[in-house]
Design a protein that fits this description.
Length: 194
């Protein structure tokens, strides 16, 4: 049985780590916007009649901290990592961070009675009609979480594979480095070697 040596592989480790920034840009930007929505809507939603109890604008509660503010911050950070990094490890970490935050948006309110004395920490939808309550549930938690997980997974998928274009770009960079002369002798202004 033969084993491959590092020189037998056409790609080097660094070519597998570097990704173009545009690879996760759309997912990252949308995750940042969704995170902003998730973090700000509990505070400004009551102004427009779109709220969970307590349905008072700019009222801070521990339920809002654990179920809305912290996952929103994690979504924004994950989105920024996908949006700005050229390091595959950072973009993948950012994608996972946003995916976990989206999952927490979706299941956090369901699990919150377990750590809040049997009472939902998020409160209840403030809408009196069943349709309004469903829209609030989707916009604040479940729907928002599912959409965040979708875009995080999209960003993870785009950044977890080494595309043919990436491999060709890395090969071209290695070839051009190999063809360049090593540190030529310094010349003065007249062209003579010093």
């Amino acid at each position: 049985m033969t084993t491959a040596t590092p020189s037998a592989h056409p790609r080097r480790f660094s070519s597998r780590i570097h990704v173009t920034r545009s690879r996760g840009a759309v997912s990252g930007a949308l995750l940042v916007l969704l995170g902003i929505w998730g973090g700000i809507i509990p505070f400004v939603g009551p102004i427009f009649g779109y709220a969970y109890t307590p349905d008072t604008a700019w009222q801070y509660t521990m339920g809002r901290l654990w179920l809305e503010i912290l996952p929103a911050v994690a979504t924004i950070l994950g989105g920024l990592m996908l949006l700005t990094s050229a390091d595959r490890r950072i973009t993948i970490f950012g994608g996972w961070l946003a995916a976990v935050a989206g999952a927490w948006f979706a299941v956090g309110p369901i699990l919150s009675p377990l750590f809040n004395g049997g009472v939902p920490a998020a409160g209840t939808p403030a809408g009196a009609a069943a349709t309004q309550a469903a829209i609030e549930e989707l916009g604040f938690f479940v729907g928002l979480g599912v959409v965040i997980v979708f875009f995080a997974a999209l960003g993870l998928g785009r950044n977890s594979v080494v595309s043919v274009k990436d491999a060709d770009r890395a090969k071209a960079a290695r070839t051009s480095k190999r063809d360049m002369p090593e540190d030529p002798a310094p010349h003065d202004e007249g062209g003579e070697v010093r």
